[in-house]
Protein: Dipeptide epimerase
Organism: Candidatus Synechococcus spongiarum LMB bulk15M
Amino acid sequence: MQGCCRPFRIDRVVPLTISRGQTHCLERLLVEVSHEGIIGIGETGRVDTGRYHYGSRAVAAELAQLWPQLKPYAPDQWQQCEPLFASLSPPARCGVDLALLDWWGKALGRPLWRLWGLDRQRCGATSVTVGLGSVEAVRQRLWQWFEQVRPSRIKLKLGSPRGLDHDRQLVQATIRELDRWPGSVDVQIDANGGWDPEQAMTMAPWLKDQGAVLLEQPLPASPDDHEGYAALRPHCPLPLVVDESCWTLQDLIRLAPHVDGVNLKLLKHGGLSQTLLMARMATGLGLRLMLGCYADTSLLNGAAAQLLPLVQWPDLDSHLNLRRDPFLGLERIGDVIRPSTAPGLGIQLAKSLQC
Ligand SMILES: [Mg+2]
């Protein structure tokens, strides 16, 4: 097979602010493998969750070294290729894994969800993200989402550097605003590791009283963060979900006894193959699944969407906040996202890439 990687730029319509900072414009990588006239595509890019950081240029350099080594193999010779992937960073592995799987599905003429025997009708509503900001900015963002998607699930970012009082104001303003919407809307909280254990213990019962339905990553990620979750859980009346804390199978095993769910992301785990394994393992350990994204286009979210039938809390909204998403094929009806019915990932490049 031949492989290559092309950088492109994306811009968010609304910059996203979380407890660790703000992102607006980002460099991404389109990964391609070709063999026997079929081209498989994948996406990867920068990931920075505080505990781990991978830059997109470093990921591109890893892939540039990989391509000559993959040359003797076909894209479906996974076992032969596997040792070559062992030293890759999770985002580099993600890019190549998606391109190989896209090639495989296209070669067989089937979408991946079908090859894995998943039921496309089981995809639930995705949450949409409201970042940190002033009360007025949060109110405005809610109404933008209402116009665009009519969401039934909101993910509100907390862990504000301005402190717990500001976090509480944002929650109350959100609940007030949502009371004006038709129908009921679930409010999930994601603190992105912005609280210490004492703050998390104070906030969790208060959030439950306000009507929040879930609490994600209240504590900072660290190698021994399971101890913090073990202490927090008896005081937390909401389902506790980990995101930044859980990258590997080892993290999953370490955290599973102390939390209720895990937010799976393709860039963190190294692509669809590994995320499918994580999903099966997490379910076996009794956890519920969220499936999330970073600043991903509908190519990466279209790949993640292949696993939506396995997931209780879909969270694939990043492509809905891009000024110019270059890809086509991911289905959305209202706030329900479903994987494409086309072969492979089912996503095509529809516009030229911005460099
Ligand atoms: Mg999160």
Observations:
- The chain has two domains: 2-111, 115-350.
